[in-house]
Amino acid sequence: MNPADRDSHFPRREFLKAVATFPAIATLASAADLPATRNDRRADREVDVAVIGAGLSGLCAARALGKAGLRVCVLEARDRVGGRTFDHPIGNGNVVEGGGQWVGPGQTEVLALAKELGIETFDSYATGKTALYISGMRLTWGREQESADLRRVKGALDALAKEVPLDAPWTAPRAGEWDAMTVADWLKANKATGQTIQDFAVDCETELGKPANISLLWYLFYLHAAGGHTSMNVDAQKSRFKGGPQSMSRKMAQAMGDDVILSSPVSRITTGGAKVNVESARARVTARRVIVAMMPTDTRRIAFSPELPEARQNLVKAWAGEPAIKVNAVYPKPFWRDAGLSGLGISDRGPVAVTFDNSPPDGSQGVLLAFLSEEHAIKNPADRRKAVLEGFVHLFGKPAADPTDYVETDWSADPWTTGCVSPIGPRTLTRFGPALRAPAGLIHWAGTETSEIWCGYMDGAVRSGRRAAAEVLKAL
Ligand SMILES: Cc1cc2nc3c(=O)[nH]c(=O)nc-3n(C[C@H](O)[C@H](O)[C@H](O)COP(=O)(O)OP(=O)(O)OC[C@H]3O[C@@H](n4cnc5c(N)ncnc54)[C@H](O)[C@@H]3O)c2cc1C
Question: Tens digit of pLDDT for each residue in 230-239?
Answer without folding.
Answer: 999 889 999 9
